[in-house]
Amino acid sequence: MPPNPDRDELLHLLSISGTLSGICIGGVTLFHTVQTESRAATLVDDLLAVCALGFLVCTYLNVWALRTRLRRYAHVLIRIIDLLFLASLTGLVLAGFLMVYTVL
Questions:
Q1: Which of 99, 102, 57 is nearest to 80 (CA)?
Q2: Within 10 Å of residue 44's Cβ, how many Cβ atoms?
Q3: What is the DSSP string of 28-55?
Q4: For 49-75, what is each residue's pLDDT tens digit?
Q5: Nearest to 90 by CA among 58, 42, 62
Q6: What domains can be seen in the chain, in order of their start residue?
Q7: What's the pLDDT at 56?
Q8: Cα–Cα distance between 86 and 51 in angstroms, integer?
């Protein structure tokens, strides 16, 4: 059976999404531990929480797409996963810039 590039992409995104959701949750925990009262820190905290949720949903949909046997359904899920992953990753980058801003 020839390798399925969609399956390979989903397997890579599965591990990356799980890891990035853990990083986001760790960032939220860090900001709660430090308890800075600045507006930027609160924004970073909220943004990291939303990103963590996005990565967790991405992970869930990823497993669902890997388990489905319907090709058409899998392609729709792959598009949703890609968009959700990109949106969450963009939010994580923005949160990173804001974190650096709060430190400086």
A1: 57
A2: 25
A3: HHHHHHHT---HHHHHHHHHHHHHHHHH
A4: 999 999 999 999 999 999 988 888 888
A5: 58
A6: 5-103 (1.20.120)
A7: 96
A8: 10
